[in-house]
Amino acid sequence: ETGVTQTPRHLVMGMTNKKSLKCEQHLGHNAMYWYKQSAKKPLELMFVYNFKEQTENNSVPSRFSPECPNSSHLFLHLHTLQPEDSALYLCASSQHEAGSSYEQYFGPGTRLTVT
Amino acid sequence: AQKVTQAQTEISVVEKEDVTLDCVYETRDTTYYLFWYKQPPSGELVFLIRRNSFDEQNEISGRYSWNFQKSTSSFNFTITASQVVDSAVYFCALSEATKTSGSRLTFGEGTQLTVNP
Questions:
Q1: How many helices (H) and strands (E) does chain B have?
Q2: Which of A14, A69, A78, B108 is deepest in the core (most CB within 10 A)?
Q3: Is pLDDT of A50 > 90?
Q4: A95 vs A32, A80, B25, B45, B62, CA distance in Å?
Q5: Nearest to residue B25, comparing CAs of B81, B97, B74?
Q6: Using one digit for the tens of pLDDT, what is the confidence trace for B85-110?
Q7: Which residues of A touch B (CB under 8 A)?
Q8: CB of B81 within 8 Å of any CB in chain A?
Q9: How many angstroms separate the CA atoms of B24 and A107, rounded?
Q10: Is the pLDDT of residue A75 over 70?
Q11: Which residue from A30, A45, A111 is facing B104, i.e. has the nearest CB?
Q12: Is B97 within 8 Å of A45 when comparing Cβ atoms?
């Protein structure tokens, strides 16, 4: 596997379900990100992890719970979601050095539908 | 606060035409970075270019070129001799030079480019 992978690619879940999205990066990066992309809206940064530590939570509701067990893996645990949470969820990774900003490499995304 | 504006929501051209996608940004930082990404129908964002605020040289990569002008806070992207495969949504993004967290990208709303045969 190369680059950034995400599973599953598509997910349909009811409002009472619990599911998890998985992201894995094979680029040796030390920062990972979750984004939400809704129709007709800019990409919204949700969470940032740097060396496994969460460094940013962009006012995301608690029904989204991230987990980063190591620098290569990132999860997004979902529970009691709302229909408005239906969107494309994108994972990304990048190198990070203080005082700079490197390009992020994105996975193919998980298309989530909440019914 | 940072902001990126892509005023062109949709552009439609005929194959082989040149097309320019506009990007205007706002930031109070003196050190910042600008990016362009391509999102084809498959959904995955593809990185195209990264520029820092101290490098105003224009860049050309094949049919792609970028014009960075600090005086007008713009970072425009031109595709020469467009092809059907260039059809995608193109995003401009801005990031400050962070101290602690990873790169925090602020994206524009994107421009949907359709290249017709």
A1: 0, 12
A2: B108
A3: no
A4: 9, 33, 24, 17, 26
A5: B74
A6: 999 999 999 998 766 666 788 999 99
A7: 30-33, 41-43, 45, 48-50, 55-56, 88, 90, 92, 94, 96, 98-109, 111
A8: no
A9: 26
A10: yes
A11: A45
A12: no
How much is the average pLDDT of B48-65?
90
Task: Tell me phi and psi for residue B24, to 5 degrees.
Answer: -120, 140
Q: If residue A44 lies in a helix (H) or strand (E), which one and from where to where?
A: strand A44-50
pLDDT at B58: 86
Instruction: For residues B78 and B45, give the distance between their C-alpha atoms in angstroms, rounded to a whole number.
Output: 18
Query: CB-based contact (8 Å) between B33 and chain A?
Result: yes
Instruction: Provide CB contacts within 8 A for B28, sequence distance 6+.
Output: none
Nearest to A42 among B32, B95, B107 (CB): B107
Answer for the pair B6, B109: CB distance below 8 angstroms, yes or no: yes
